[in-house]
UniProtKB/TrEMBL annotation:
One of its GO terms (molecular function) is serine-type endopeptidase activity. It comes from freshwater metagenome. This is Unannotated protein. Keywords: Membrane, Transmembrane, Transmembrane helix. InterPro entries: Peptidase_S1_PA, Peptidase_S1_PA_chymotrypsin, Peptidase_S1C. PANTHER family: SERINE PROTEASE FAMILY S1C HTRA-RELATED, SERINE PROTEASE HTRA2, MITOCHONDRIAL.
Amino acid sequence: MGQALGFIVGGRLTPRRRDGAFGAVDRVLGCIAGLVGVVTIVWLVIPVFIASPGWLATQTSNSWIARTVENSLPPAPDAMQALRSVVGQGSFPDVFDALRPTPNLGSPPDSTGLTLEVATRVARSVVKVEGPACNKLQDGSGFVIGEGLIATNAHVVAGERSTNILRDDGRRFDGTVIAFDPARDLAIVRVAGFERPPLPLANGKSEGTRGGVFGHPGGEPLRIAPFKVARLINATGRDIYGSSKTERKVLEISASLRPGDSGSALANEQGEVVGIAFAIARDTSNVAYALSPAEMQATLATAGSAAVSTGNCLS
């Protein structure tokens, strides 16, 4: 439609005579106008292509033209909010603010490397997080990070008026969100009488660490997915609403995760938490992202005793 309107308007503005100097100027201006139009279209559709799953996102991320346009122009107006409405990609925050090809991390490990004793101990302190938000039920995962305290992602509880925590034995508890950080994408939920031990946070280097991602993908029963940490990076991305830039310490991991794994504990072979899952690569099925223990400790330090707002709904 836009192309047709442009053709009609351009046709009426174009003089009938195309010879001589005026014709040469007209052709040059026409080329410039065409180039501006193409650049504008690319500028507007880049966010939509990047958020699309599979081949389209991969080609866009690897495109020199797309990266040049994005780096040279300001963000497209309301592009991220528009694409969330179109493709339903409203849960995961943008890990990176700029176009960046997803790295090839290889296939996830065949196994977690955890003993049965360690896996059982970790599983007892892993939870499912549920709550109503804007006429829909949100769900994700979480784990015990302190006495009666659950760590999860902010996008899991965003906009909720009430939050429920489901323990490994199926018992349901009422939770109170006492820390909500949309920039880091972390939240802390207080649960009275939960009676499950906190999982220790790992210290030291995480690169090369293997283990299991303990989560509830799709709201299903607990699943333990093998992972391997590729690297720890300082990532400049967007908050959960896509409204402002934020910096996070992020682990790039090789793992096959699904929606619902958000908030999952990444446990190493000793049962220590090396990260909390918060995003999945849109163009590659075996690359995911987790927030480092330092990010969790920073959010935990802001938790008080009173309930806090969980912000607006994501979509």
